[in-house]
């Protein structure tokens, strides 16, 4: 049985066009953003913001009902920080520190919010207090390096980043700390 070459060519062309058409139609929704595999459509982002606002409102009510609940104060501070509402985060972390003044995590979180709100000197002072409370608190050392660097105190920043690396040589910020040290040491010379 012999195949007619004209029919085979026509069939091949039609098949190729059909497959290409299916391929294109399958990807149009992703290209246009209708189906974003990461869920980053405007509707998904709006829903995420609504969820965050609802969670924050629930935490605000919980803190209002029990203002001495350290856990909820910390969660509320973290929620404000995540939403970049730094002044409210600072206020809530301050209330948490009134309940637990030796909580280094909260102190460093408050310092970070001071930093992001442009209060670098206050952030640095808080970072120093955090390191004094727990010299082995790696994040306190790392953040203090950032605060010092922002103040142009390069020598102190290098010392802080090196202290971080002694505590966390393979930690989450190790590569960044090494890069900062390299840049800052050049600036010191």
TrEMBL record:
The keyword Glycosyltransferase does not apply. It comes from the Bacteria. TPR repeats lie at residues 70-103, 138-171. It holds the Pfam family TPR_1. GO terms for biological process: post-translational protein targeting to endoplasmic reticulum membrane. The chain crosses the membrane at residues 12-35. GO terms for molecular function: molecular adaptor activity. GO terms for cellular component: membrane; TRC complex. The keyword Repeat applies. Keywords: Membrane, Repeat, TPR repeat, Transmembrane, Transmembrane helix. SMART domains: TPR. PANTHER family: LD24721P. This is Uncharacterized protein.
């Amino acid at each position: 049985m012999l195949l007619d070459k004209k029919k085979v060519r026509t069939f091949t062309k039609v098949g190729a066009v059909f497959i290409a058409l299916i391929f294109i139609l399958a990807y149009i929704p992703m290209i246009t953003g209708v189906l974003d595999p990461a869920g980053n459509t405007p509707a998904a982002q709006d829903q995420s913001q609504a969820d965050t606002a609802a969670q924050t409102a629930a935490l605000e009510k919980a803190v209002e009902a029990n203002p001495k609940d350290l856990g909820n104060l910390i969660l509320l501070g973290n929620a404000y920080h995540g939403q970049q509402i730094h002044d409210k985060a600072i206020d809530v972390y301050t209330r948490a520190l009134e309940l637990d003044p030796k909580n280094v995590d909260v102190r460093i979180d408050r310092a970070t919010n001071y930093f992001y709100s442009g209060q670098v000197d206050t952030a640095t002072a808080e970072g120093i207090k955090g390191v004094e409370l727990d010299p082995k608190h790696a994040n306190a050392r790392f953040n203090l390096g950032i605060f010092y660097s922002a103040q142009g105190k390069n020598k102190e920043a290098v010392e802080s980043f090196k202290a971080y690396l002694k505590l966390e040589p393979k930690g989450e910020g190790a590569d960044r700390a090494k890069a900062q040290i390299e840049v800052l040491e050049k600036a010191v010379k």
